[in-house]
């Protein structure tokens, strides 16, 4: 779900309060507009009496007695920026550190709340999750992930602390939020009916980064969202930024909303998503309560088979180029390869013909179309048996083609069942209430900055 909850209630201006107390109706549109634009009643001209440069404050904090150090911030910042290809400017780094500090404060509050309710996360739980992440990214060698984290300026301890915060928050939600969420059978049946009526329309799998904003800080939040967009376009990981910066509960899964229909989204998000293709980024988009950055992961048609779920049998035919080869010789070898591929007589002839060209052949019998690079998906879907894609690659990495040798199309989709729809509705409501829960933890906290 998209976290679009409203901000905290703010007091009206003193003049408006006095008028209401005297029983006078505050119906003057200009007075009401002024109250909406300036909910705290702060004068337009403000004289700052203390230090006004937030950058002079050391970026450390004491949260209900727990210390967040500069090293904690340094290592978490390194974890966020490790995927970015461009160097981050100094002023942007200052803002990034401030945001990371706010995230670490939330994380600390979540860990403390879990411990206070006897839901403390054990080292065994954290290590098991850490090993699972290592297996996903570095095979069965967690020491490689240790070395990677240290190499980018972070540490295994920093990632484990983030894991601990996520596990603690999940435990709190399971105990204090989930049991009090109810979805009626009639609601689920209504959704299933609407889905059947929407058969053939498109669903969008979106990633989100949601940043809450109030009238008082809206401009600053907008600027922060624009900086996040810039970093993502320079190679930053959407999943990493969502985990660190998004204030939606989907942050724990890298901002992944799953598949949703446009009608389920706020109007501005719906309009933006409708124009996007998989892999595109959009935002910041103003939504109730703040701003959202969205990333289109995938899209499909409701209750329809997706051709990208077809299983393919492919032969990958490739050639390499010796180091130092001249441009003329490389071009001649490439042309000979292209001509030879065109003359192949289907998959039965591929191995022998490839050997004559000095090419290698790798056969893959269970390749799903969506597993291929996006640029190749539509090309492969248009092939007949025995046909090949155009050559692709480079002199440095080798040039190859894919030959289609078999295709098993997906069966018609039956769509989600009753239980799956109920789980989705419950998750949406849990996410909304979780946001309110976190705001309560912040409001009750004692935080000192050093």
TrEMBL record:
<keyword id="KW-0574">Periplasm</keyword>
<dbReference type="InterPro" id="IPR046357">
    <property type="entry name" value="PPIase_dom_sf"/>
</dbReference>
<dbReference type="InterPro" id="IPR050280">
    <property type="entry name" value="OMP_Chaperone_SurA"/>
</dbReference>
<protein>
    <recommendedName>
        <fullName>Parvulin-like PPIase</fullName>
    </recommendedName>
</protein>
<feature type="domain" description="PpiC">
    <location>
        <begin position="201"/>
        <end position="298"/>
    </location>
</feature>
<keyword id="KW-0413">Isomerase</keyword>
<dbReference type="InterPro" id="IPR000297">
    <property type="entry name" value="PPIase_PpiC"/>
</dbReference>
<feature type="signal peptide">
    <location>
        <begin position="1"/>
        <end position="19"/>
    </location>
</feature>
<dbReference type="Pfam" id="PF09312">
    <property type="entry name" value="SurA_N"/>
</dbReference>
<keyword id="KW-0143">Chaperone</keyword>
<dbReference type="InterPro" id="IPR027304">
    <property type="entry name" value="Trigger_fact/SurA_dom_sf"/>
</dbReference>
<dbReference type="Pfam" id="PF00639">
    <property type="entry name" value="Rotamase"/>
</dbReference>
<dbReference type="InterPro" id="IPR015391">
    <property type="entry name" value="SurA_N"/>
</dbReference>
<dbReference type="GO" id="GO:0003755">
    <property type="term" value="F:peptidyl-prolyl cis-trans isomerase activity"/>
</dbReference>
<keyword id="KW-0697">Rotamase</keyword>
<keyword id="KW-0732">Signal</keyword>
